[in-house]
Amino acid sequence: MGKEVKTMMKYIVFVESNTTGTGEIFLKKASEQGFEPVLLFKDKKRYPFLNSVPFKAFETDTSDIDNIAAFIGDTLGLDNVAGVWSTSEYFITAASQLASRLNLPSLNFEAINKVRSKKYQREILNKNNLSFTPYTVVENETDVIVFTSEVGFPVIIKPTDKSGSIGVRAINNQNELISAVSSLLSDTDDHGEWIVEKYYPGEQFSVEIFDSNVIGITHQHYSYFPKMIAIGHDFPALLNEESTQLIHKTVSAVISLFSLTTGPVHIELRILKDGSIKIIEINPRLAGGFIPEILRLSTGADLIKACIDFCSGKKVNLEKNTDNFAAIRFLVKGCQINENLMASLKEESEVLHLHHDERKCGDDVIYGDFRDRYGHVMFMSPHLNRRAEIIQILNSLTF
C-alpha cells in the first residue's frame, strides 16, 4: 500500500478582529469549515481569547499592507491562503485590499474606505435626498451654535470614523453643546473629525444585507440617553407590511448608491412616528452585538459562515429553515440579574446562554458605549405565540 498523502489545510487569514462578540466565533467557524484560521494582530493585550481556542496567531504591523503581504508570504506561503477577512471595522479596507492583491475574493475596498466616514455618508445621502438629515462639521463653537439654533435640540454629536457608539452622545441644550464642543476642540490627543446632526426619535432597527439581499431586520433597544448604549436586540422585528417594504426599498437604494452590492452590509435606521425612515449609519460589515447569532438561532441562516464562504470563493447559502424568536439582552455595569425572572426565562427557552465577564464587571470606568457591557443573556424559543410575554421578562431581567 502506498503512503496516504495528507492534504495541507488552507488558511483563512484574519487581519485583526473584534475583541468581543463575533470575533472569536469567526475563528471557530473558519475551523469548522475545514480551514486553519490565522489571526494577525498588532497588540496581543487586546485579545482575551487568544489562549482559549486552537488557532495560529502572529504579532505584526497590521497598519502596513505591504508588511502584512510580506509576512503572510514568508510565514504561511501565499499559495496556502484561501481567503483574507477582518471582523474589525477598522481593518476591513486593508483586508479587502490584501485579498484583491492575492487574487482572492474581495469586497469593494474603495467603496468601503469612503463609506466608513459618517460625514461622507451624510453628504452623499443628503445630496441624493435620501433620508435627508441636517448636519454640520465641528470646526468652531460659533458655527455649531448657529446650526443648532436652526434645527433645534436634541442633536447627536459623533466622531466620523469610530465604531461601537464610541463618542456618540445626544445633546439636549446649548450649555451641553458648548461644553461638548469646547472639550473636543481643546483635546490635542484627538485629531479625528466630528459632526453634529439632528436627532430624530423613533424605534430603531438593524437591517442585515448580504450580496444585495435583505436577510433579516432586527429590533434594537437603546438606553442610558443621552449616551447611546445598545442594551438588547429582538429577531425578527415585528413590522407591518408597509414599513417592511419601505425598509427594503430604502436599503436597496442605499447599497446601490454607495456601491456596497457584494458581501455583508449592516444598516441602522429609525422609523419615525409619521412612518418615514431615517438612516442612522451604514456599515460595510456584519452587525455587532451578536445580531448574526440571534439571526442564526431564529432562521438557521448563518451570516458568519456566509462571510467565510464568500472570502474563500465558496457558494454562499443563506437559506432559512427555521422560524424561531431569538433575542439578546446585555448586562451593563451597575445592573444585576433578577434570578426569579432568569428562572422564568429558562422555562420559556429552548436555548438560553448566559455570559458574565467578571473582569469587566469589576471595572469601575464608565465609557458610555458598548464597553460598559459586561455580559449578556441570549435566548431562543420556537413558541412565537409567547413572544410578548418573553419580551416582558427580558426587559425586566436586570435591575
Automatic annotation (TrEMBL):
It comes from the Bacteria. Its EC number is 4.3.2.1. InterPro entries: ATP-dep_AA_Ligase, ATP-grasp. GO terms for molecular function: argininosuccinate lyase activity; ATP binding; ligase activity; metal ion binding. Residues 122-312 form the ATP-grasp domain. Keywords: ATP-binding, Ligase, Lyase, Nucleotide-binding. Pfam families: ATP-grasp_4. PANTHER family: ATP-GRASP ENZYME FSQD (PTHR43585:SF2), FUMIPYRROLE BIOSYNTHESIS PROTEIN C (PTHR43585). This is Argininosuccinate lyase. It comes from Dickeya dadantii (strain 3937) (Erwinia chrysanthemi (strain 3937)). The lineage of its organism: Bacteria, Pseudomonadati, Pseudomonadota, Gammaproteobacteria, Enterobacterales.
